[in-house]
C-alpha cells in the first residue's frame, strides 16, 4: 500500500511538473532549468555520449584499424571505440558543465571544432570548451543565450575604477576594471553598440572620484550627453591636440610628485597630494589620425605621440584611455598600431571590415577573431572581449539610453573635478 502511495505521489509530481513546465520556462527560466532542464539534459548526455563522440571522431578504438593476422593485414573499423572519460555533468547557473579526459594525441581544439554538434546533441544553446590543465577539457553548456537581455545587479558600493557594464556569456557580470587593465580599445561598425557601452561605463564611473575627459571628433555629438560630468570635452582635432598635450603635462607632474615622495604610483601618494584618476574617452579614433595636408601631418604626429605617452606612463599615474572607433586599420599609420599594442583591454562589436577585427583581436586570439566576425547585425551590443586573464568571451553591455546617460551626468555633475584649460591643473 505504502509503495502504491509513493508511486501515486511521484506520478502527480511528474504530471504537475509537465503541466507547469512551459509557464515555468518562460517566467522563471532558472527554476525551470534546475527542476526540469538540467535533469533531462543529464539523462540525454549520459545516454548519447558514446554515440556522439563516435560520430564526431572523439572516441578512439581500442585496437588499431589495421591488424596483422599471420601474414595477412586486416583492415576495418574496430568495434566499440572508447569515448573520452567524462565526469557527471554538474549544475551551474543557466547551464551545466562536465570535464572530459583527452585521449593520447587529442588536444582541446579537437573538441572545440565540434561544439555546434555537441550543442545540437545536448539540445542546449551553445557549448564552450575550456582547457583545464594538461589532458583535460571542461565542456560548458549554456541552456539559453545569457546575452539575450542582460541585467546587472544594482551597484550600491563602487570599487574604484571598476565599472560593471554588462553580462558575460558564462553568466557572470562583465566589468571593465581600469586598475587591472588600464587601457581599452573598443571597435564596432555603426549601430553595433559602442556608444551604449561607453554610456554604461560612464554611468558607473560618474559616481566615483574620477576626472572624465572626452575627445569626440564627431563634433561632440556622442559624448556631449555626459558634458556636465566631463572635466573637458574636445569636439575637434585641434582642441583634442591641446587637451592631450595638457594631459601629458599632468601625467608628468604626477611623475615628479611620485619621485619626490619616493613612491611608485599616484595611489601610493599621501592623500593630500594624490590626484584624481583620469579617464580619457576617445570616440572615433580614426578621425584623430586622418591627414591630408602637411600641417595636419604635424598635428597628427603630435596627437599620436601624446596618446602613446599617456598609454605608456598612465597605468601607474592613474591616467586611463578608452579608445573607440568604427573602422581602425593599419592604413591609418604606424601610430595606431603602436597605440593598439598599449591597449590591453579589447572589445570588438560587429564590424564591417575584417581589418578592424584583426586590429582589435588578431594579435591576441585567432578564435576570438572568428567569433567576432560571426556577430550579426541583430546582435546590437554583443561583443567579443579580451579581459584581464587574456581569455576571450562574448559579452553584451546593458542598454543605457541617451536620456539615462544625460540624467546620470547631471546627477553627479557636482563630483566633476575642475580643469583649467590653460594651466591644466585641478582646483
Ligand atoms: N546592449 C544593448 N542592448 C540593446 N540594444 C542595444 C545595445 N547596445 C546598442 N543597442 C541598440 O543599438 C543601437 C545602436 O547603438 P549605439 O548607438 O551604441 O551604436 P554605435 O556603435 O555607437 O553606433 P554609431 O557608431 O553609429 O554611433 C541603439 O539604438 C541601441 O538601442
Automatic annotation (TrEMBL):
SMART domains: AAA. Keywords: ATP-binding, Cell cycle, Cell division, Nucleotide-binding. Residues 169-358 form the FtsK domain. Signal peptide: none annotated. One of its GO terms (biological process) is cell division. ATP binds at residues 188-195. One of its GO terms (molecular function) is ATP binding. CDD domains: TrwB_TraG_TraD_VirD4 (cd01127). PANTHER family: DNA TRANSLOCASE FTSK, SPORULATION PROTEIN RELATED. This is Cell division protein FtsK. It comes from Kitasatospora acidiphila. The lineage of its organism: Bacteria, Bacillati, Actinomycetota, Actinomycetes, Kitasatosporales.
Amino acid at each position: 500500500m505504502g509503495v502504491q502511495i509513493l508511486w501515486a505521489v511521484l506520478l502527480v509530481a511528474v504530471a504537475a511538473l509537465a503541466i507547469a513546465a512551459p509557464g515555468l520556462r518562460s517566467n522563471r527560466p532558472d527554476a525551470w532549468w534546475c527542476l526540469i532542464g538540467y535533469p533531462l539534459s543529464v539523462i540525454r548526455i549520459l545516454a548519447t555520449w558514446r554515440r556522439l563522440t563516435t560520430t564526431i571522431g572523439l572516441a578512439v578504438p581500442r585496437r588499431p584499424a589495421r591488424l596483422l593476422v599471420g601474414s595477412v593485414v586486416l583492415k576495418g573499423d574496430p568495434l566499440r571505440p572508447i569515448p573520452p572519460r567524462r565526469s557527471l555533468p554538474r549544475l551551474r547557473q543557466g547551464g551545466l558543465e562536465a570535464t572530459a579526459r583527452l585521449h593520447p594525441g587529442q588536444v582541446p581544439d579537437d573538441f572545440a571544432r565540434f561544439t555546434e554538434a555537441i550543442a545540437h546533441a545536448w539540445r542546449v544553446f551553445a557549448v564552450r570548451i575550456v582547457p583545464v590543465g594538461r589532458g583535460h577539457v571542461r565542456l560548458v553548456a549554456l541552456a539559453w543565450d545569457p546575452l539575450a537581455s542582460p541585467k546587472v545587479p544594482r551597484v550600491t558600493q563602487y570599487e574604484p575604477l571598476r565599472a560593471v557594464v554588462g553580462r558575460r556569456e558564462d553568466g557572470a557580470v562583465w566589468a571593465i576594471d581600469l586598475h587591472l587593465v588600464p587601457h581599452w580599445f573598443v571597435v564596432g561598425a555603426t549601430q553595433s553598440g559602442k556608444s551604449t557601452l561607453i554610456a554604461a561605463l560612464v554611468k558607473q564611473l560618474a559616481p566615483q572620484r574620477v576626472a572624465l575627459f572626452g575627445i569626440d571628433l564627431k563634433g561632440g555629438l556622442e559624448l556631449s550627453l555626459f558634458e556636465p560630468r566631463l572635466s573637458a570635452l574636445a569636439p575637434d582635432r585641434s582642441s583634442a591636440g591641446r587637451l592631450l598635450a595638457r594631459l601629458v603635462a599632468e601625467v608628468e607632474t604626477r611623475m615628479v610628485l611620485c619621485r619626490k615622495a619616493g613612491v611608485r604610483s599616484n595611489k601610493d601618494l599621501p592623500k593630500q597630494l594624490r590626484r584624481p584618476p583620469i579617464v580619457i574617452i576617445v570616440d572615433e579614433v580614426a578621425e584623430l589620425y586622418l591627414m591630408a595636408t602637411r600641417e595636419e601631418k604635424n598635428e597628427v604626429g603630435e596627437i599620436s605621440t601624446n596618446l602613446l605617452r599617456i598609454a605608456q606612463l598612465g597605468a601607474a599615474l592613474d591616467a586611463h584611455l578608452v579608445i573607440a572607433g568604427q573602422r581602425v586599420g593599419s592604413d591609418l599609420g604606424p601610430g595606431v598600431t603602436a597605440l593598439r599594442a598599449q591597449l590591453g583591454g579589447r572589445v570588438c562589436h560587429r564590424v564591417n571590415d575584417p581589418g578592424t577585427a584583426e586590429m582589435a583581436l588578431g594579435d591576441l586570439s585567432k578564435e576570438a577573431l572568428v567569433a567576432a566576425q560571426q556577430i550579426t547585425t541583430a546582435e546590437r551590443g554583443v561583443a567579443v572581449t579580451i579581459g584581464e586573464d587574456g581569455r576571450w568571451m562574448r559579452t553584451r553591455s546593458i542598454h543605457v539610453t541617451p536620456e539615462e546617460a544625460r540624467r546620470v551626468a547631471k546627477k553627479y555633475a557636482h563630483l566633476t573635478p575642475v580643469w583649467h584649460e590653460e594651466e591644466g591643473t585641478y582646483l
